[in-house]
Design a protein that fits this description.
Layout: H1 2-17, E1 27-35, E2 38-45, E3 48-55, E4 59-71, E5 83-86, E6 96-102, E7 110-125, E8 131-138
Antiparallel strand pairs: 1-2, 2-8, 3-4, 4-7, 5-6, 6-7, 7-8
């Protein structure tokens, strides 16, 4: 019994300490920040990308971002053509359902932010080409 618990704990520690790219994930991290009444979602990917477009422009219950991968490491090649998703911590405060990477979708790849209700948003690509932010404003 103790050996089983130790093995489970060892696996949990390995998963938590292994970089997302080594686990086959494209979404490395997604965090919600709230400061002075402003809500921002920050997402970091394991691949470099260039923003192409997004839809809808500023209001909706889903934000669909078309991207073009710029650099994909050998360890990320397989994951770049798959689907990945993550629910950020504190997602409820920003009305976020989940953040999705769709590398297998026709016309993609896409980054998708699904909200639990319609919100106003502004997409901002990070300067490092591996991250982006979404400023979120609740609609009353």
């Amino acid at each position: 019994m103790i050996k089983n618990i130790a093995l489970v704990l060892l696996v949990i520690v390995w998963v938590m300490s292994t970089p997302a790219s080594a686990r086959g994930n494209i979404i490395d991290n997604a965090l919600v920040h709230e400061k002075d009444g402003r809500i921002t979602l920050e997402v970091e990917l394991t691949i470099a990308f260039r923003y192409q477009s997004h839809f809808p422009a500023e209001t909706g219950d889903e934000l669909r971002i078309t991207i073009k991968p710029v650099r994909v490491s050998a360890s990320d090649v397989g994951a770049a053509f798959e689907r990945d998703s993550l629910v950020p911590s504190n997602a409820d405060s920003a009305a976020i359902d989940e953040v999705i990477y769709e590398g297998d979708a026709p016309g993609g790849p896409f980054l998708i932010v699904r909200f639990t209700r319609p919100v106003k948003f502004q997409f901002i690509q990070g300067s490092d080409q591996r991250s982006f932010s979404v400023a979120i404003q609740k609609i009353l």
